[in-house]
Amino acid sequence: MSLDRAVSLRDLEPLAEAVLDPAAFAYIASGAGDEHTLRDNEAAFARRSLRPRVLVDVTAVDPATSVLGTRVPMPVGVAPTAQHGLAHPGAEAETARGAGQVGALFCLSTLSSLALEEVAAAVDGPAWFQLYTHTDPAVTDDVIERAVSAGFGALVLTVDLPVVGQRDREVRGGYVWPTEPGRFGTFARYGDGAGAGLHRSQDTWAGLARIRERSAPLPLVVKGVLTGEDAALAVEHGAAAVWVSNHGGRQLDRTPASLDVLEEVVDAVDGRAEVYLDSGVRRGTDVLAALALGARCVFVGRPVLYGLALEGASGVARVLGMLQRELVTAMTLLGTPTVADVTRAHLA
Length: 348
Ligand SMILES: Cc1cc2nc3c(=O)[nH]c(=O)nc-3n(C[C@H](O)[C@H](O)[C@H](O)COP(=O)(O)O)c2cc1C
Description:
By secondary structure, this protein is an alpha/beta fold. The protein has one domain (3-339): Alpha-Beta Barrel (TIM Barrel). The protein is 39% helix and 11% strand. The protein contains twelve helices and ten strands. It has helices at 12-19, 22-29, 36-46, 91-102, 116-120, 137-149, 168-172, 205-215, 228-236, 258-269, 284-292, 302-334, and strands spanning 65-67, 70-72, 76-78, 106-108, 127-131, 155-158, 220-225, 241-244, 274-278, 297-300. An eight-stranded parallel sheet has the order 3-10-9-8-7-6-5-4. Helix 1 (12-19) runs antiparallel to helix 12 (302-334), helix 4 packs parallel to helix 12 and helix 11 crosses helix 12 (302-334). The longest helix is centred in the C-terminal third of the chain and has 33 residues, at 302-334.
C-alpha cells in the first residue's frame, strides 16, 4: 500500500484502513452515534457552490496567509488529534516533521503519544498546543507552563469534550481507551493517578480567565464552538481566535456541519477575533468555501493521520501538498489570486 495510489484526500481512508490495526482504524475513522454529523460535515461542502469570476489575471496565484500574525504557506493547518503512535511508531514527532516539510501550521494534542517536549524538538515550522484541562489544576498549570517554555505559539483550549462522545463504531471495532498514564507522553511524569484526571466536565467560562492568565503571553484559541452565542462569549473572555468545530463528528451527534454554522459565528465575532474551521475539509474547493464565509484558516484531522499511517513524515507532507495544489488550482479557476481576494460573493 502506498500513497502513490491516492489522487486526492478522498482516496486515503481505504488505503490507510489496509495498513492500520483494525481497532486503531475504528478509533480514528468513527463518529459519534449514528454518524449523522460525521457524514454531514462533508455533505455540507457539497451543498455549496462557488461563483467563479473570469478574465482575472491569475498568472501568479499565492495561497499564503497569516494566522495570529504568523506567516503560513496556506490557510490549512494540521488539527490536533490524539495518539499518533497508533498510526506510526514515530508518532507526533513524525507528524511535526511532515508538517514542517511544507511549512504548514501544526497543532499538537494534549493526548499525544509522545511528551510535548519530544514533539517540540521535532517541530520545524509554526506550532500550537491544544489543551485539555486536568481535574488537578496543578497538573493543568504545569502542562501550560511546559507548552509555553517548549516554544508553542498559541494555546488552543478544546471546549467540546466534557466527556468523550459515544462512538459506536469504535466500540464495535474493539478499541479500548488506554488507562495507563504512560500512554499519553505529556502526562507520564505525573504518576499513576494522572491518566484518570483527563476529563474536562469541570470547565466553565469562569475558569477560562484562569487559563488565559496562565497561558499569557500566548494567544488563546477556543476550539469547538458551534453557536454565535458561544463565539461572542469566547471573544468576551479574551479569545484571540474562535475555532468552529464539531470535533469531526465525534462528540454530539446531530449537531450541524461546521460549515453550516460558520456564517453565524463570523457574524457574532464581528471582526474582533480570527475564525477557523475544521470537520470535513477534504478539497481545495472546501477551503475556498470556508474562506468565502469568513474563516481565516481551516484544519484537517483524519487525512493527516492516514498520511502518517501510510508513509510517516513524508506521507503527512504529501497529503498537505495535495491539498495545497488543489487549492492553487481552485483559486486560479475562481479568479482569486490571493486568499484576501476570496469574498462572500464567490459563494452562491
Ligand atoms: C482520531 C482523532 C483524535 C482526535 N483527538 C483530538 C484531541 O486530542 N484534541 C482535540 O482538540 N481534537 C481532537 N480531534 C478532533 C480534531 O482536532 C478535528 O476537530 C477533527 O478531526 C476535524 O475533522 P476531520 O477529521 O473531518 O478533518 C480528534 C479527531 C480524531 C479523528
